[in-house]
Amino acid sequence: MVGKIGPALDALTRRITARKGDDPESSYTAKLLSDGREKCAKKLGEEGVEAALAGAKGDRKELVAESADVFYHLAVLLEANGASFDDVADELDRRAGVSGIAEKASRKRR
Question: Which of 17, 35, 38, 97 has CA 20 to 30 A from 106's CA?
Answer without folding.
Answer: 38
